[in-house]
Design a protein that fits this description.
The protein is of the alpha+beta class. It has one domain (8-54). Helices cover 25% and strands 25% of the residues. The protein has a two-stranded antiparallel ribbon with strand order 1-2. The longest helix is centred in the C-terminal third of the chain and has 9 residues, at 39-47. The protein is flat and about 35 Å long. The protein starts with 7 loop residues before the first strand and ends with a helix.
Length: 57
Amino acid sequence: MEKQHLTYFRIENFKRFDSFEMSNLGQFNLIVGDNNVGKTSVLEALTFDANDILNMP
């Protein structure tokens, strides 16, 4: 079976981002930037699952 990886990612209305997108992602990517620009928010958005909120009791 062929392994696939994420090649495009888009965030809207999440934390500090009104709209943010990354395209042409490779198998390995490095996120760099100054302090307090949203690097951790991008990682949190990658792990965010809307189904967890929709299925809350």
